[in-house]
Amino acid sequence: MRRLIFRLFTGAVFLLAAWLFHSRLLAADKIHIGYSAISAAAAQLWAAQEKGFFRKYGLETELVYLAGGSRVVLAMEAGSVQIGMFNVGAAVEARLAGGSTLVTGSVYDVYYFQIFAKPAIHHPKDLKGKVIAASRAGAASEYGIRDALAHFGLKENDYKIIYVGGTDARVQALQQGLVDASIISPPNGLIAQKLGFRELVNLMQMKLPFGYFGIGARETWLRQNRDVMRNFLRGYLEGLALCRRDREYALRLIGKFSHIDDREILLESYRTSIPYIPERPYVRREIIEAALKLSKREGARNADPEKFYDNSLVKELDGTGFIASLFGKN
What predicted TM-score, i.e. pTM, was given to this entire model? Predict the structure, then answer.
């Protein structure tokens, strides 16, 4: 059975790779970095690319946006993307299915979402029987709906989830009346509020443990490219340090990628993201445990969380004083 699941999984991987890149040949010396959400929590990645921090450490990189962590992980498993920034649950699911994705860093350890609904809906329990928009199956948005509404006593068969794409598409689905509620990442939550929709749940305030964004790669690739991942982490952390010390630059960057020019919305986006991104991006065991708990795959309950992540590269950078040189000692 496990072998069959793995065959199906790998088949989907290669179909995705063909769809994603068509017939375009990828340069052998370029590192493709996939990321799963257009949100301020990715600002440090954009900064590292725009300011040449990856190049500073010898990497030629290209950023590839794929809505939903499962797409990023599938592209990594296919070899089309070498390094990913994705929800940790997607990596856990892939590994349970026979893949080799390993989480090597943490970006944001709680859900970076709010659930907005039509004005007539007043309480999360009122979502019983309603339709809620997420990005795609296996994405952080789906996990967020399931986890948050379970907290309010709703079971998965009490509501219907439909998959419409990225955060902007989920706002549009709500605005067009296609759904009763949408799970939305900042800064789009403030946009939904200005459009007259009601915030039902703020998952950031709930602080449910979840790897909204993690960093990783295939274990097989990582064994042969530890220096590449180490240098990626160096560039990434320099990007974070820049966003911390130069808020105005970070705001311009968030506006550029999210196509938002409303300063109030951009400030809210920055406030809810950059200050909470860890300077020492160690992967916490409880984040892996939370992903295993949410998984419906056979074997998830008995899986060893230690097999899904590796903190050795972050530990190396921490031990050499590199992180302290950027952020100071904690």
Answer: 0.80
